[in-house]
Amino acid sequence: MNISPRQSKIIAMVDENGAMSIETLSDHFSVTPQTIRRDVNVLCRANMLRRSHGGVERIGAGVNLPYDTRRLANPAAKRRIGALVASLIPDRASLMFSIGTTPELVAAALADHEDLTVVTNNLNVAMALSANASNRIFLPGGMVRLPDRDLLGHAAEEMFSGYRADFGIYGVAGIEPDGVLVDFDQTETLAREAIRKSCRKSILVADRSKFGRPAPAQRGRLSDADLLVLDGPPEGDFARLIEAEGIEVLYPKTKPGVLEGEEE
């Protein structure tokens, strides 16, 4: 299904805050409560959000949204991240990619790069880069996790640990206020850490809705990455956290007059 930029932003705001009232969303977007209710009804029917008394809430902190649903959240923000990371990668580089929708869009932005060596457990990344016959793509064995289309477990960790890449590109489910990185399963965190330890330059890619987003499995912290690439400038407590962690951060310039979440 297609969702509007406003609906995409509603998903991100609810994901970040846990729940939002219809009144707060109405004020934020300067539209009527009836308009917000229509948006919320669309998102709830698609099982992206759940209605609560007087508002809407995320499905659950311990359960991630379906992959195709996550693809629809903040798509323009993720494409900005992808374009910026792609600009840092030369032809003939070797790369490791984690699972996740943002790494997939980084891979899509690399479609015109030549002669890449790619090590990944993310089938979406592999497919995005498979159109270019000059690329070499390595995948682990095992069962594909559906509907996410990725591979996790010992085979994935062993594969990442057996290679050394120029760049490791990985996402994360959430970044805690103290800088700890969280995901929805320990197998996800172990694969992410194997990527970070097996590359010469580790790049954490995250749109700003990941700050404060809860998930149950913790491993690693913000300062472990060599570079953090965001969709825009960090603000408030998380700007102070990034400064305290001492991590290099990059983000693209948003064009004047472009609403967050809209196409540029």
Can you give a write-up of this model?
The chain has 10 helices and 13 strands. With 264 residues, the chain is an alpha/beta fold. The protein has a 7-stranded parallel beta sheet with strand order 6-5-4-7-10-12-13, sandwiched between helices. The protein is globular.
Features:
264 residues, alpha/beta, 7-stranded parallel β-sheet, 3-stranded antiparallel β-sheet, globular, disordered C terminus
Please give a quick description of this structure.
By secondary structure, the chain is an alpha/beta fold. The protein contains ten helices and 13 strands.
Strand content is: 15-25%
Give the strand line-up of the largest sheet.
Answer: 6-5-4-7-10-12-13
Category by helix and strand content: alpha/beta
**How far is the first residue's CA from the last residue's CA?**
21 Å
The gross shape turns out to be globular
Helix percentage range: 25-40%
Largest sheet: 7 strands, parallel
Topology:
Blueprint: H1 5-17, E1 19-21, H2 22-29, H3 33-45, E2 50-52, E3 55-57, H4 67-71, H5 75-88, E4 94-97, H6 101-109, E5 117-120, H7 123-129, E6 136-138, H8 154-161, E7 165-170, E8 174-175, E9 180-183, H9 186-197, E10 199-205, E11 217-221, E12 227-229, H10 236-245, E13 248-250
Helix pairs in contact: 2-3, 5-6, 6-7, 8-9
